[in-house]
Amino acid sequence: MRYIMKLSKTTLELLKNFATINTNLLVKSGSSLSTVSASKSILAKGTIEESFPQEFAIYDLNQFLSLVTMSEDTEIDFSDDYLTCKSDAGRFKFYYAEPSIIVAAPDKEIEVDAFYQFNITKEQLNTIYRAASVISAPTLSVVANGGNVVLSVGDPNTPKSNSFTTDIGNANVEFDARLGIENLKVIADDYEVTVSQKKVFKFSNAKRTYFLALEPSSNI
Question: In the chain, how long is the greatest CA-to-CA distance?
Fold first, then answer.
């Protein structure tokens, strides 16, 4: 049985975000998508409003996105071995990849402890991205000194380097959680952030979840 669908803007946004993490993608039937970086340092999961009718593998996600966004009226027609992107301009045939060559996200659930949690807003994340770009900062740090908790963007290994800092809360513990900016592949939105003693940041909201491996120099 053939199935035809269109992808919403929010689904395309998620797929574009996933393409920055890994250009491979194993799509499973249903409304859940997940991906993992080749280094296994980033795991991302999201829920979409559409439901895919079958499992299929994409080797080059950027190429797939280019095809489905060439026209606003593009529809996807699924077949057993390929899909067809149809629009008023014409049709593109896109063959599925072999699942065995895809770096796919694991099926198992990731459990992390809630050592410390805080909320971050879309505006704060956009500020972090801008600050990191302006000062070429390599690291995002969340640091607690037994009282105040601050989030900073900079280079903790270079004391006199430029940095951006903002207060995010209080805690009666001490820790220094460091994340490489290159691993902050998170869609700007409001999230609950969990700092885990497994040296992981978990960013989560109702639509998506990211697990980001911290730097070995982190002290939690």
Answer: 63
